[in-house]
# Entry
Amino acid sequence: MIATAPTRRRIRRTREQVDHEAELWRRYTHRRTLTNRNALVACYKRFAWHLIRQYEQGGHLPPQLTGDDVSGAVMAALVWCVERFRPNSGAVFTTFARRRLQGAIIDEQRRWGGRWMDIAGSVAGWHT
# Structure
């Protein structure tokens, strides 16, 4: 079973959160340090977990795979997105990052799917 994209639900943000994100992007654009990058990753971690939960609760992940299993791949994809996003492009970061994060979930599912089949096959071989 390959994961499909669940329906979108908006994450509501306050004006203060929007202003805080804009300030973090301004800092990161001015000085690309690990501290500034990690602040942006922390800021969007809620968005990443929201996508993971949508896949998990929507039945888009196989039973042997949990949100915790894919979280590492999703967080690595989130870092990738922060490093490559250009705020002056006019795009919204969450729009830019959504497909990459969804792709990370699907890639992790494929990776685990093959591993699960290998484990199941070797266990079946023990009983013969």
About this structure: The chain has a mean pLDDT of 83.
